[in-house]
Amino acid sequence: MVRDDLYITVPSYFRCPISLDVMKSPVSLSTGVTYDRSSIQRWLDSGNNTCPATMQVLDTKEFVPNANLHRLIQTWSSQNRHNPLDDSSAESASPLSPDKIQLVVKEIGGEEKESDLSKIASFAEESSENRRFLAKMDGFVAMLAALLIHSDDKDLSPPVVELAVRVLDSVSTEFGDFHELKRLLLIPKEKSPNSLPPSLLRVMKQGSSRPESRIAAVRIIQSIAIDAESKLAVAESDGLLLHLVNSIAPRTDPPLIDAVLSCLISISMPKRVKPQLVRLRAIGKLREVLRSPSVPAPTAEKALKLLESVSSCREGMAELCGDSGCVEAVVRKAMKVSDAATEVAVTILWTACYLFRDQKAADAVVRSNGLTRILLLMQSNCSPAVRGMSTDLLRIFRVNSKSCLSSYDTKTTHIMPF
């Protein structure tokens, strides 16, 4: 650790690999990698079954406290408590009670907004009971929404806005009334061409070095896109779609990619949105996600779902069929992710090859050993829908499904793994 009168360098192993903050409650996964408890819990609660740092599939989602590292961080923190880099200050060592939090909430309108919101964020991270307490507090969610709506008028600093976003995201599920949240956050068109608060868009696009803040902003945006009108309003906010699509990149933080895909699946449902995503090269981005050997299964499933949505318009299908690499990536994921992903992948292939009769897509399926995969699917315990579409695909490729199935009898034939 390097120290002088101007700065303190935080040891890298004190920082959570997800949030990049000094860990308050370090816990270790079965892979041996340590994360802050709140960050890894969010990752696992999102349906992921891999270690974010190594992308190894987890044998178990249980984690154990890393007591030795916790003691080291506490010792380091006590020596450097005056330093602003220290997020685990004395306040986190003595959790605030609900009664004290109520007083802090009442003081948010004062000059110490950043300090007050930081205390509330720490309180919310402690437990689901704390988040439920905040969500049910009269006017609390409305107050956070007002901070975001009027942040420019009040000249709020970026750290204050980011804290407001993180707290709002943490309590939104417990709040539960997403129609009310939509009413609080969506700006009427007659007041602004952008339906989303500019501060929320800034956190999503820029944020700080904390991916956690950007993830929180994306999740809030998704949570208020609950009907056709709000999905369209959100999608047409200035620069939103472009930024979300550009976030689907190999170097992007994996939890952020996962959140972005979930958001895009939700807001891509209106017909007007799908061609926009095609023009923004979303299909090429999804191809790279599906090609990645380390992509977590839940992320791959979401990438397939978004690809199905985007390719359901004529422009999207033409783009997909012209991208043989993307078709081949879909074929390779057809049996390697989940039952739900298999059904989506087969639907994409069926639409391109059977419904649209696209020869380029059919050639790509053949090149990627797609016929063998289809035959294996039909021998597996697949759903009736998958079996029906697979039969149609075999007809397209002029394969007699009955004779092929008998020749591929698993009791007498050994099929090489793929």
From TrEMBL:
It comes from the Eukaryota. This is U-box domain-containing protein. The lineage of its organism: Eukaryota, Viridiplantae, Streptophyta, Embryophyta, Tracheophyta. It holds the Pfam family U-box. GO terms for molecular function: ubiquitin protein ligase activity. Functions as an E3 ubiquitin ligase. It comes from Linum tenue. One of its GO terms (biological process) is protein ubiquitination. Pathway: Protein modification; protein ubiquitination. It catalyses: S-ubiquitinyl-[E2 ubiquitin-conjugating enzyme]-L-cysteine + [acceptor protein]-L-lysine = [E2 ubiquitin-conjugating enzyme]-L-cysteine + N(6)-ubiquitinyl-[acceptor protein]-L-lysine. Its EC number is 2.3.2.27.
